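G., the chain you wanted modeled:
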Amino acid sequence: MKKPQQPGSYCAGWSKVEMRVEPRGHAMHGYGGMNENRAWGSRTPLFARALVVSDASGGNLIYCCLDLGVISYATRHEILLAVSTEMGGALNEETAIITCTHTHSAPGGLTYDAYYNLPTPGFQRETLSQVVQAASQAILSAWRDQKEVTLFTSEGAFADDVPVAWNRALDAYNRNGDVVKRPDSLAHLAINRTMYLLWVEYEGRVAALVSLFGVHATCIGNSGRQYCGDNKGFASAFTEAALAAQGIEKPIAIFAQTTAGDVSPHYRGPGEKARRARLAGEAEYEYAEQNGRLQSEHALDLISGKNRRQITGTIDGCLTYADFSQRKAAPCYADGAAEAETFEPCIGASMLAGKALDGAGIAPAVEAIARTAAETVRGIRLSMKRTYTPEERAYVERLYRAQGKKDIVIEGNHKLAFGLPLAKLPLPEFADPLIAQIKQQARSGAIDKSAMLPYVLPLQIVKMGDTAIVAAPGEFTTQAGYRLIDTIKEALQPAGIRHVFMNSYSNDYMGYVTTHEEYDQQTYEGGHNLYGKWTLAVFQTEYEKLSREFIKPPAERHYDREMRPPMPPAEELALRSNLTATVARR
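Predicted structure as tokens:
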């Protein structure tokens, strides 16, 4: 491994390795309970792409992006464990970012958290091992083969007439007081249309790049039967071919995500349903290629543009974990509310309904029944709270105060559905395979002590010179992302950090983060905002505190470096591992 000699200079290595996961009829991650969205083949390869950058002082950035729907704590933990033996003390977990493209046509079953593995069904140890093997090989190959390079960044918005993305939750977006209200016909302007680019030049040619642009990788809908990189995967393939044609050997192009939570690749506006209906079967794959090509062309244009900036300076980072089931928000981020807090992770009825354009879930009539049942349970609990113990009363009051307008279906930590133990859910197993899995796993003891939903979450900032990447878990909506970045940028400015980019879907997954105004609309995004109305306010609070510590000299920084998500009991993980789907091939 070559090391840079001059302060402010860099060495870098880059690599990609195919994740050879055999399609065997397991549900893909992304479309939740859609039982038929199972992989029986592969349309495109799925890759692990890695970029390693080292500075003269011994700091390094490990950046690894996988063609997956999400990164779980299990995925991150096992990848870094796999590379730790060879890298030794050079592995700094605080400057290692593991992220993904968020393609919905990729393997599921890769998390220790029980809920997100239900459709697969269960935890798929063999699949995770194959993913870890590819990712660790890519990282180590990049680590070993570093060369002297120059780093650049650039950013620029897609022209308004480029049909690349639309806001899919426009009614919720328009509730925000700090946005320009947009009609349906201008939903493409109710998003962050800027692409942020980081690239590596070796001997005067671009050898590796990272693109951050937020748009769901859902060009291929929930009737797909093949693994596919979707729009982000095609963008990488087109860009790598273009770079290779210029003479660079084995280039990599990473197309990762920023604020994609409310951003769809599908047209939103007058006639949207008819237009989406025309995209079916082969047309979806063609559309994924088209959308990917738009992203690739824009990235290549940014490289050749005039506003590129060279990066110099040291690499540094900070990483902490926070328990979002019990966090208070600073009033300045919560409309002045003194008691704003997050609480136990909960799934809302609107989450089960999915999104009409990207992938519908349960039928509207069933959603209505779920909402009514949730409202009934809420009414009964609040009317009976005088009969509860002090602990029960405090729980119910905090639950509904934090979760606000959400019609709660599942309470993750207490493992309740509509207020009842999961095994006693009053719905027949034949009604839906997801219901069957929940009840069967609850009866078997597979989730007695395990987390149903994640609640200990990673917060990370990595900087190179005056540029910082905020690596955040989950799916941030457009305006939630703007508010968080504004908070962090202000806190980091005293340290001379001028450019702050957000990289979502990083290091773990925990649903959505909306603004509190969007949350009250209770669309899909609000129903999948697990910790309640003030989730964003708590992210702002925690990231501001972390940023204030990060700008101090390393020896003076004080933040929690020990907390991690709880590991599930081995016997429970075994009970929900390598389960077999009972679904016919089509």
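The longest strand covers residues 147-157.

Shout if anything looks off.
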